[in-house]
Amino acid sequence: ENGYILSTAGAGIAEGVSSSLNPAMNRLKNSYIQFSLNNWLDNIQGSQTAFYWGDEIPQSISIQSWNAKNISLWGENPASEPLGTFGVHYISASYSISHNLKTPYRFGMCIQTHYSHLFSESMSSISFNIGALFPINSFIQAGVVLKNIGYESTNNIKADLPTEVGLGLALTLPLNISLLTDVIHISEHGMDTRIGFKTHWRLINLHAGTSINNKRNANALGFSFNYRSWSISYGIYNHENSNLGMPQFFDIRRYI
Prior knowledge:
The protein is an all-beta fold. It is built from one helix and 15 strands. Strands 1-2-3-4-5-6-7-9-10-11-12-13-14-15 form a 14-stranded antiparallel β-barrel. The two termini are about 20 Å apart.
């Protein structure tokens, strides 16, 4: 993930600019390299390095990691002091490719693998995402995505991953503003509705979004600054449980 995705609360299935939202991507004007520094809930630290390239056939490769140290360990009956501390380590890698298949539409596929370690247990997984973009007219585009087709393995025991099915619309409004609306069904969490907007101005752009679920609501905002071949983005995510902190992502992008 990166600051732009965080700042729109994960909306953008139909926008066609990020393979992590939908592997079906629009044609790239310029290739770029991006590095992200991420701070998630409860001060979990992470980073992502991504490379996007290709014009007719956009492709991307991404490596992401998360690390948490000194997490307090409590017993069944928590006392005034924790029993100790522990750490969690997570790393993932993905490759995405998109093509029009000689149609007016865009189709994409992503393969990704994950590895995490907690206490003495290790978990690994491999999965596929597939998606498509359907231009409706000059200012409306629809998108669909199916995520987590695969399995995870913990101590050599395989289990299916929670699947996600999402539908989205991207609308181009006057004043160079995009409105993004998504409806996503997550097999373990039910329906999630996301609404976001972003500007497409020359130097400074604004992003905002909201995510609504029957278990939790969240709001996000951010900005990006463009100068020549560089772009800097920042996103912050505000959710209902403020005790866990506010996730913040910071990106640096270099167009090549």
